[in-house]
Amino acid sequence: MHFVSEYTETVTVRAHKDNFSQASGEKVGATPAAKIHLPRGVAPEWAVDVARAHFKFTNRGLIEVERYCAYVDTEEWARLGNYDDDLRRRAESLLLAKYPTVIAVDPPKLKPPWPTYDKLQPQGQRTPLKVAERKLELAEETGVPVEDLVTYEKLNRNNPEIVAAYEARIEKLRPSAEPLGDIVDA
């Protein structure tokens, strides 16, 4: 989920906990605290627009809202912190229940790169790799940038094999960093 707020917030989702052996009573490790932070100035434009319409941002000009809007994507937070879905859901529940200045927002729906993009999906002998190759061919024929395919796929289907094929194509198309040769003054 995505959240915006007029104020920056830091929420403790899980407290630090020392773990002890039941047999010996000795400390055997610790579970670190998990905190979710809504930093300012990192919200995407669509989230800033929602915040601008919902919050007052007292003593802030409408242009400055981009700098003061606090934002977090809990799925990204969980991925970066290597947290499981239970902890992510707990963070989302805390943000919704205990922080009236925080609201959940939905990203805008992204249009497919072409109208029939979603019809071609892996099924039976049509493997994700074959689907990705065909979609890459269509992208080349229609002039759609591969980056657009990656963005749309991640936001909609998020098939890791298809995304990996797209990203491999991007890497292949990226200019190499090899030197062209020695420069000689004539």
List the topology elements.
Blueprint: E1 2-5, E2 9-14, E3 17-20, E4 27-31, E5 34-38, H1 45-54, H2 65-68, E6 70-73, H3 74-81, H4 85-98, E7 102-105, H5 128-142, H6 146-155, H7 160-173
Antiparallel strand pairs: 1-6, 1-7, 2-5, 3-4
Helix pairs in contact: 3-4, 5-7, 6-7
Structure summarized in a few sentences:
Helix content is 40%, strand content 17%.
Description:
The structure is a single chain. With 186 residues, this protein is an alpha+beta fold. The protein folds into 2 domains: 2-13 and 29-105, no CATH class; 117-172. Helix content is 40%, strand content 17%. The strands form 3 sheets. A 3-stranded antiparallel beta sheet has the order 6-1-7. Strands 2-5 form a two-stranded antiparallel sheet. A hairpin with a 6-residue loop joins β3 and β4 (27-31). The longest helix has 15 residues, at 128-142. It is extended, with a radius of gyration of 23 Å. The relative contact order is 0.13.
- The whole-angstrom Rg is 23 Å
Q: How confident overall, as mean pLDDT?
A: 85
- Domain unit count: 2
Broad structural category: alpha+beta
- Helix-strand topology string: EEEEEHHEHHEHHH
Order of strands in the sheet with the most strands? 6-1-7
Helix content: 40-55%
End-to-end separation in angstroms reads 61 Å
- General form: extended
Q: What kind of sheet is the major sheet?
A: 3 strands, antiparallel
What are the main properties of this structure?
single chain, 186 residues, alpha+beta, 2 domains, three-stranded antiparallel beta sheet, two-stranded antiparallel ribbon, 7 helices, 7 strands, extended
